[in-house]
Amino acid sequence: MNIDQVVVIGILLVVIMAIFVSVIELATPIIKKIEFNALCRNYTLLAESQNGLSNETLQKLKNELMSSGYEIIDIQSNENNTVMRGSESVLVVEVAYKTTKLINLFNRIDETLIFKYSQNFIARKIVM
Asked: Among 14, 71, 96, 125, which is 20 to 30 Å from 110 by CA?
């Protein structure tokens, strides 16, 4: 193997590594948004079946969001059993996710991404 082939292989490895890091940088916010939506969707289904969310359930949602690295901005939901069966209600969750972003080869900047989940649901629990 000649020296020029070694140099070309070295440059190609650096370029491939830069592309790999860029893909990871772009995929991380998308993955966190999907994780956030899945978590909120579970609580939407719970609110649908209970005609709202209890204070305990809301606290559990807040704890799960904080343990996943989100900073809670706002959560709006009806209280448990306050929505009449067949009525439409909404669960709104807004969080901030702090991360760093690569701006050039050696510099990163802090970035805050705002994620918002808003889902309408129909209350399904039969209250007697």
From this structure: 14
Q: How many CA atoms within 13 Å lie on the side-chain side of 122?
A: 2
| Beta bridge pairs of residue 74 | 94
58-62: long-range pairs with CB below 8 Å, 24+: 61/93
In a domain, 40, yes or no: yes
Res. 127 pLDDT band, cuts 50 70 90: low
For 36-53, the pLDDT digits (tens) are 999 999 999 988 888 888
The whole domain housing 68 covers 3-122
Quick check: is 32 in a domain?
yes
3-state DSSP assignment of residue 85: coil
